[in-house]
């Protein structure tokens, strides 16, 4: 029984290592605070992950790339603005998009 528990725990840890996600922050103030605290640059990603074909391609070819994940973990704070399919003009996401689209 003990071996089974140890095996399950080991497999869980291995799975965590392979499924590492790139940490993305949706609050600008939090992103700035973390960047300053960790001495990292901020990468602003404006995307439409549900509907934008180039955004989907970037996610698949760049964001999910293991080399990018490793680089981002060590050097970047990622600030994400993900526009939904239907945009509410007064939403925080839309206001953030308008604020950062020219940066």
Give a quick precis of the structure:
The protein is an alpha/beta fold and 103 residues long.
The total strand number stands at 3
Uncertain regions: pLDDT < 50 for 5+ in a row?
9-19
In helices, the fraction of residues equals: 55-70%
* Estimated radius of gyration: 17 Å
What is the count of DSSP helices, taking H or I runs of 4+ residues?
Answer: 5
Overall, the morphology is flat
Average residue pLDDT? 82
**Secondary-structure content class:** alpha/beta
State which percent range the strand residues make up. Answer: 15-25%
Largest sheet: 3 strands, parallel
CA-to-CA gap between the ends? Answer: 57 Å
Order of helices and strands: HEHEHHEH
Order of strands across the main sheet: 1-3-2
List the defining traits of the structure above.
3-stranded parallel sheet, 5 helices, alpha/beta, single chain, 103 residues
